[in-house]
């Protein structure tokens, strides 16, 4: 029995040596930032402030891909899917666009304070949620951002 424990300890010690980190001069170099998939995708994305422009119609925005903020980071703005198939986006200023809301095909509205507390947004939300002919219902299509 004693031999088994010693052999087990020796094998364990040998395996532990195999998992030590490689010397700094032999470690693999990380990929260059410009080679990452996220940065390549970000280059093709619209700027949030150009998608959500006050008093201009919102169209063609894909919340699954996102848009870029002022600092170039990808921003995901959650959409509320309306009963008629359009989308409603509540937008926070942290995205680089002015705080407000926009429904697909309608003008973007700027609000003061929180979007969800704005009476205009509440009305737009209620209209968005109205049941469409045929009983279709609305559901969020992405997490709010």
Automatic annotation (TrEMBL):
- Highest taxon, organism lineage: Bacteria
Q: Where is the signal peptide?
A: 1-24
Keywords linked to the UniProt accession: Signal
This one is known as Lipoprotein
């Amino acid at each position: 029995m004693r031999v088994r424990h010693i052999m087990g300890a020796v094998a364990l010690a040998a395996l532990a040596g195999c998992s030590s980190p490689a010397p700094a001069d032999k470690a693999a170099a990380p990929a260059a930032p410009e080679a990452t998939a996220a940065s390549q995708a970000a280059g093709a994305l619209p700027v949030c402030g150009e998608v959500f422009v006050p008093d201009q119609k919102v169209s063609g925005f894909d919340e699954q891909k996102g848009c870029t903020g002022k600092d170039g980071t990808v921003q995901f703005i959650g959409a509320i899917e309306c009963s008629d198939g359009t989308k409603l986006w509540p937008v926070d200023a942290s995205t680089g666009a002015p705080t407000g809301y926009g429904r697909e095909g309608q003008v973007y509205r700027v609000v003061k304070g929180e979007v969800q507390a704005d009476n205009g947004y509440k009305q737009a939300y209620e209209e968005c949620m109205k049941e469409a002919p045929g009983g279709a219902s609305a559901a969020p299509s992405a997490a709010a951002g």
